[in-house]
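does this look right to u?? adenosine monophosphate version
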Amino acid sequence: MNVVFLGPPGAGKGTQARRLAERYRVPQIATGDILREAMASGSELGRRAKAYYDRGELVPDEVMLEVVANRLRQPDASGGFVLDGFPRTVPQAEGLDRVLAQLGRRLEVAVLFQAPREVLVRRLSGRWVCRARGHVYHEVYRPPQVPGRCDHDGSELVQREDDRPETVERRLEVYERQTAPLVEYYRKRGLLHSVDASGDEEEVSRQVEAVLRQAGVV
Ligand code: ADP
Ligand code: AMP
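got this back:
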């Protein structure tokens, strides 16, 4: 399963990527999560990414490509992956194609998550994530069993710095300008499949499964 999830922030990519990864036992490779871990640990990558991240802008392509190329070479990704939040620009998509070719593999499907802007804003403004491992909740749509605590590991739930309204605006603009062109990129290659991401989590999951079956991936 060599799959990419594409779509604006808040569309539910991470939520569905985690489900799929658990079900099919492939790694979820979420570049946003990798950057948040790097920033929390104060690594060189985290220091390079922070200013871009805090402004809601994209970290430079060459930095992200190196991160993903290294991750795809790890043994646990040899049987497939769900890439979530990467690629986000045409040069990243081209770089991904090159890395996969070097590994003797290729992308099988790009799933585009589509939802109206007001849905995205509502989801981002109510998102809470667990400090320990990034499990994702929503104060209305997916509340934790114990308020403020992760169901999986009991760690504290926090709101992401970049989910504040000003940064959300910027991220949505950046998506339109830099990431939306990937829709054409994958359409031209016959890899694009869209799902209506505005339904509830189960509904979207059914559509994702249907798309993967249709594409012959599962
Ligand atoms: P993305 O990875 O695309 O930015 P997330 O998966 O983090 O999006 O989801 C954003 C927020 O919306 C989270 O709070 C999540 O719990 C919630 N969410 C995800 N999918 C749905 C859905 N289908 N319906 C309602 N809320 C959802
Ligand atoms: P996400 O968790 O996918 O919403 O990403 C959060 C932030 O991390 C983005 O706003 C960017 O600053 C950065 N980021 C994540 N993935 C990428 C990527 N593929 N290219 C550039 N920046 C990224």
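Residues 9-15, 123, 126-127, 136-138, 141-142, 199-201, 204 surround adenosine-5'-diphosphate (ligand 1) (CB under 6 Å). idk if thats expected tbh
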